[in-house]
Amino acid sequence: MKLSKALLFIGLAMFFGATLQAEESIQLSQEHFNNLGVTLGKLERVNQIPLLYAPAKVTIPPTHEYIVSASQAGLVTRLNAAVGDKVKKGDVMAQINSSDLLSMQRLYLKARSELAIGQLAYQRDKKLLESGVIPERRWQETQSQYNAFLSEADEHRQLLEIAGMSASDINHLGKTHKLSGQLNIYAPVTGIVIERMAVAGERVDNLAPIYRMGILDELWLEIAIPQERLGTIRQGDKVLVENSLVKAEISLLGQSVNLENQSVLARAIVKNAQSTIRPGQKINIQIIHETDNGFKVPNVAIAQNEGKSFIFIRTPTGFQISPITVLGKQGDESIIGGDLTGDEEIAVKGAVALKANWLGLGGSE
After folding, report:
1. Matching fold, domains 68-97+181-214 and 99-179
2. What CATH number does the domain located at 99-179 have?
3. CATH architecture of residue range(s) 25-47+291-362
4. For the chain, what is the radius of gyration of the CA atoms?
5. Geometric angle at alpha carbon 150, from 148 and 152, rounded to 5°
6. Beta carbons within 10 angstroms of residue 327's beta carbon
7. Which fold has domain 68-97+181-214?
8. Which CATH class is domain 52-62+216-289?
């Protein structure tokens, strides 16, 4: 009796094992294979997975954008730069005629004169103190007055620098004592003029913007990502610009959703930006993910069963049914991953017939 039960158990195990084996493979004769009209092909290894097409806007990073402003109120007499011009740091971009500057220069020269007189008194009393002619208190008063003159002269010099005069212009003023209301506005950095915000003959206030400049060696792509696709995008993913060789990399995924279109802002950085894209331009981009274990196959080579994806790998006796993961799609092709080496020969056509054959032998959809 015990022997009969043991034999029955072994028999059931062999039956279910055979059924499981049938579900993982299809046995086909060469004649049956020819009748199914199956076409074989090789896996094509790829290192990029297409994730998403989306619109984007080209912007300048805030740290690369500068406003050139009038450091004093006055009349704009000359503009030397136009939109699109490249200017170097220190170039004269505009000239302003300012009456306030004349007053500041006069006060600076007055402070220098008082400093010169104070310095003579300082040197004289220093020698008299060393000779014992004057008391210590007289020397301290002279020294205190000299330091006050020195501070005042330094203050007025700094005010001229804040007003926009260069060190060489201030030194020239100190030597010639010639007042000038003409103020040069210099470029703060080497960059491109993006916008002109004043015209010649216009009166401008203190700190009124005249130009907007940008350094364009780095640009940002602001991308609107549908919130339902956000889970597939990661920092570090590559971005390709349509009809261009420009490449970028995702550096930021936003934390809030746009109420109007339910999208999330993603930012990609373009290093050493080529002239094919420009600030303010709206473009189309593709986001891709790099991988070292992806393969490209036709969509018709993939069979679906119970929510899972499979491909059919050719074996000497038929086909092995291999589960795969669809990583991305592009047109009529898909990028897949799985337990694959890349040397497999798969059914690229006729997967529908193989699926019907497979389900008829060992399962149902």
Report:
1. no
2. 1.10.287
3. Beta Barrel (2.40)
4. 40
5. 70
6. 20
7. OB fold (Dihydrolipoamide Acetyltransferase, E2P) (2.40.50)
8. mainly beta
Q: Are 333 and 296 in contact (CB under 8 A)?
A: yes
Contact predicate 53/288, CB 8 Å:
no
117-124, long-range: CB < 8 A, 24+ apart = 117/149, 118/145, 118/146, 118/148, 118/149, 118/150, 119/146, 119/149, 121/145, 121/146, 122/146
Closest listed residue to residue 186, CA positions, set 49, 87, 116, 294: 87
**Residue 171 three-state SS:** helix
Domain boundary assignment for the chain: 25-47+291-362, 52-62+216-289, 68-97+181-214, 99-179
Quote the pTM value. 0.65
Could you list the pLDDT tens digit for every one of the 365 residues in the chain?
A: 444 444 333 343 343 333 334 458 888 878 788 788 888 888 888 888 888 889 999 999 999 999 999 989 999 999 999 999 999 999 999 999 998 899 999 999 999 999 999 999 999 998 998 888 889 899 899 999 999 999 999 999 999 998 888 888 899 999 999 999 899 999 999 999 999 999 999 999 988 999 999 999 899 999 999 888 888 888 888 998 988 888 898 999 988 888 888 889 999 999 876 567 888 999 999 998 888 788 988 988 898 888 889 999 988 888 889 999 888 777 788 888 888 888 888 888 888 888 888 876 444 33
Closest among 350, 307, 349 to 326, alpha carbons compared:
307
Instruction: Report in angstroms the alpha-carbon separations of 331 from 249, 299, 305.
Output: 24, 9, 22
Main-chain phi, psi angles of 159, to 5 degrees: -65, -40
CA geometry: angle 350, 351, 354, nearest 5 deg? 95
Q: Find the DSSP H helices in the chain.
A: 2-24, 30-36, 99-130, 136-163, 167-176, 351-362
Range 184-199 burial, b when 16+ CB lie within 10 A, else e: bbebbeebbbbebebe
